[in-house]
Amino acid sequence: MKKIFAPVILMLLSTSLLAQDAEVIRLSEPVQETETYEVFGSEIEQWNEATSLVSLIESEKELSGKEVTIETEVAKVCQKKGCFFVANQDGYSARITFKDYGFFIPTDSQGKTVTLVGTFTVKELSEEQAKHYAEDAGEDAEAIKGPQKEYSIVATSVMIPKS
Fold this sequence. Notes:
Layout: H1 2-21, E1 32-33, E2 37-41, E3 51-52, H2 53-58, H3 60-63, E4 67-77, E5 84-89, E6 92-98, E7 113-125, H4 127-136, E8 148-161
Pfam families: DUF4920 (PF16267)
Keywords: Signal
Organism: Gracilimonas sediminicola
């Protein structure tokens, strides 16, 4: 009996530990929800037509400091809280944070195509800031050398499709 019991306990413990690793963190509740999507941040009655991240960055001088609506893929999400994500499209990327640190997105949002509204900016990060952001995103911080140009959007609303 002891020989059977020990492997079963080990299997249950390892299954439990694996489930903990895959736990989704949801620190904010959606402000709007349908069968197909959830909105985090502020409610939006009417979404404007979304542009692409590529178009946004190619028009950085005209659009910097302005409110934009974009549709983009979530490439990476902060796995600690969901307090930021990195958007990628055709080799371009932007860091998306949330206005006044007022909401977060679920940590399992990676790979989803989202629509968001926010203020677009272009800024230069110090090497220290860039390394900190790389660590939070699970990237190699030591690979960063010198200041880095960063495209960012401070989002007021993010619409995420349900899985």
